[in-house]
Each structure stands twice: as structure tokens, then as C-alpha cells.
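testing teh design pipeline on a random one, pls ignore if ur not involved
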């Protein structure tokens, strides 16, 4: 079998014409030599774009980094551009305030107990984040934010108690209604 295969291969390769040598080689080299490489700006554009996209994504990702997280050193490096730690803490506290107000609205307007509870838990998480950021502050600025966070935390826990109380009251009312229908 191998002799037949060897014979077939030799016949197949014998049919390929041999190049004329120097002339063919010279024409190939001349053709390759006329092809110019792309301009330098085009060769540099792709890597520069990739680097820009990666740096942009990292900078966006580091905006909310807290101490101890991987992107936190980048956030500290970008803080002159992004804002001072006081501004960052204030922003997180404002988000928590808005979240707590929304939870109160859900409870008062819609009696949406689970939605209000979820919003309140979100508020508590945001206050925890703000509390973690307090390490970057010192002096009077730290004390003011700490008091504000403590007050909001107390309001959030009070709201959780109110939610539970209203949920219990609503369940009792529903039981009384169903009991009086019988």
C-alpha cells in the first residue's frame, strides 16, 4: 500500500511545472517590493484606540470604588479630576436621602410594603458605603457627615419598623374583613 501511495505522490508532483528559476523569483520580489506598508498613523491607531477604551472603562469603573476595592487606588489618582472625598461622600449621602424619601412615598402612597422595604434596605447599604468613605475625611467634615449618616440610619431603621407595623395592621384588617364576610 505504501509503495502505491508513494508512486501516486511522485506522479502528482511530477506534473507540477518547475519554476523557471531566477526570472520567477525576480518577478515575485519585485511584486512584493512595490507593496508599501500602511502609514505609521494607521498602524498606531488600533493600539491607541484599545488603550483609550481600556483606560476609559477603568476610570468609569473606579468612580464608585471604596477603600479596599481593586480600583480604589485608581480612584484616588483620579480624585483631582473626579472630585474630592467630601464631594463623593456627600453624593452618596444624597443618594441615600433620595432613596429613603422614595421608600416613604411607596409606603404612604401605595402601601407597597415590599417595595418600601427594598428601598430602605438599599438606603442602609448606601449609608454603609458612605460610612466606609468617611475614613478619607478628617476633622469637622468627618464629624458632620458622620452625624448625618447616623441620623439617616436611624430614620431608615425607624421606617423599617413602621413598615413592619403597617404590614401587620394590614394583615389584621384583612383577617377581620375575611372573618366578617363569613
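output:
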Amino acid at each position: 500500500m505504501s509503495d502505491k501511495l508513494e508512486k501516486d505522490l511522485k506522479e502528482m508532483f511530477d506534473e507540477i511545472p518547475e519554476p523557471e528559476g531566477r526570472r520567477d523569483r525576480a518577478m515575485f520580489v519585485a511584486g512584493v517590493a512595490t507593496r508599501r506598508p500602511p502609514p505609521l498613523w494607521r498602524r498606531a491607531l488600533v493600539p491607541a484606540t484599545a488603550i483609550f477604551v481600556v483606560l476609559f472603562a477603568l476610570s468609569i469603573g473606579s468612580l464608585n470604588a471604596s477603600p479596599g476595592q481593586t480600583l480604589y487606588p485608581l480612584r484616588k489618582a483620579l480624585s483631582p479630576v473626579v472630585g474630592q472625598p467630601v464631594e463623593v461622600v456627600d453624593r452618596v449621602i444624597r443618594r441615600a436621602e433620595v432613596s429613603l424619601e422614595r421608600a416613604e412615598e411607596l409606603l404612604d402612597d401605595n402601601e407597597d410594603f415590599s417595595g418600601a422595604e427594598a428601598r430602605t434596605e438599599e438606603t442602609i447599604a448606601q449609608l454603609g458605603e458612605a460610612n466606609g468613605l468617611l475614613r478619607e475625611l478628617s476633622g469637622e467634615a468627618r464629624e458632620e457627615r458622620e452625624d448625618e449618616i447616623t441620623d439617616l440610619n436611624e430614620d431608615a431603621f425607624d421606617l423599617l419598623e413602621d413598615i413592619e407595623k403597617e404590614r401587620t395592621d394590614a394583615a389584621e384588617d384583612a383577617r377581620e374583613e375575611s372573618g366578617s364576610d363569613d
